[in-house]
# Entry
Amino acid sequence: MLRKLDSWRDKGDPAFLRMRLMPNRSLDSTGTKIVFILIACGFLLPLIPFIGSAIGTTITIFSGLTFYLFLTLLQKNFQQAYIFEEIFISKNKVIVVHQEKNKEQKTWEGNPYWTRVRIDVNNPKLKNYLTLTGKGQHIELGAFLSPDERIELRDEIQNALAKANSA
# Structure
């Protein structure tokens, strides 16, 4: 998901592009709570007639294990929410901040004049593989985005770099 930002840490340098890239998420916190309640009821309601019997105990164990697996996968889904990339392009600098699941941040800085954005349509690793090149280095951008979003991002970055170089 591409989201333009209204504010940035550096207020003194006017920006041509301020954008946050985040993975697409199928559920927000409200939707997750609703799904959680529905699945819990789906596991508990059929058990009511069997409470206290041997078959009820067996069904409870398997339902509990299935519910635990669901919660584990749900937690993994929420960890994806911590991944993001922020792109800032101004007249004097290009900054890309990448945050991993473990909340470790990596920052790349470059000069807009020397920075180039490239997209590899036939990359075997990723369709529409997007990279930013500058200072003798290249970084991958938006690996978690859809191929169409990466093309849209490339266009946004190229426009911002053109504005920065002409200013």
The mean pLDDT is 86. The beta strands are 2-4, 15-21, 84-90, 94-99, 105-110, 116-120, 129-134, 137-141. The helical segments are 29-44, 54-79, 147-166. Residues 2-23+83-166 form a domain with the PH-domain like fold (CATH 2.30.29.30).
